[in-house]
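Sample intake sheet
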Amino acid sequence: MGRNPTGSSRLGIPHPVPARRSVTPPPAIVVAGPTASGKSGLALAIAREWDGVVINADSMQVYGGLPILTAQPSAADQALAPHRLYGILPASEACSAARWRDLAAAEMTAAWATGKLPVVVGGTGLYIRSLMQGLSPVPEIPGAVRDAARARMEALGAAAFHAALAERDPVMAARLRPSDTQRLTRAMEVLDATGRSLAEWQAEPMEGGIAARWFTITLAPERARLYAACDSRFKSMVKAGALDEAAAIAQWTLDPALPAMKALGLRELSAHLAGEIGLDEAIAQAQQVTRNYAKRQSTWFKHQLTASETLSEQLSESLIATIFLKIRQFHLTT
């Protein structure tokens, strides 16, 4: 990509300059929204228009072995523009927001270094916020403490574990659903390791946000249309081989508390494969779980993320053209 007399690329991304000089932060796009809202398609369109790099901000899509159930972009789509942080970790690992933030920051820096535009896309609000604003300064939790918390969760079960947390940390227990085993375990391990409630740590100023000129697009489809898209997409996943993915994961005998095991639809399809429920029932249950998750995501983004643009209309060529115009204005005026 060529340079102009101002020392920046045609995207307005500054080239490296001496540290003594004041430099305007480079630009980055965020495309956020609930599952099945069309985020990946819009991010790809933006990346192709502005020579960008698509960077995954979905906590499930970082894991390998589940490209269908986690709705990762197809190989054909990934061939149209660079895609980063998709399927990079084995399902046997757990990726924290801090780890993802560091990985995403490295990909953004690499994109800027080559004059490309980072396009961060996903539905995991905590990941996106960690990148833009930083994280609460919770100390690193020792592995032994984490293992002990997970073992206790497995021994007690979610309901009893939630009750045990409520006795010691009623504030965090009140914030968490008894079924949210991952966050319950996190609250307990932080309490065990630090002697302080995670709520206290979260009240501290956040650290580690990335300096960038953020242009944030939130997709907020009308609820009925979003739910219909969730239902249709899960049926398509089953036709595309989601059952085979679920069967393969079952052979790995992974800890059910691992994040990858929370992939939408995995539990329901696994129950069908085990002969516990019929396929139609499994699909219906998975669709309901997906709709519930989409609702929670929509609520989070509505109240927790300040967007440059919020789009409720169905994505179309004319709407994408309008989005492109606003992004172009963002490049020119900031």
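Comment: Confidence is low (pLDDT under 50) at residues 1-12, 14-20. The first strand starts at residue 27 and ends at 32.
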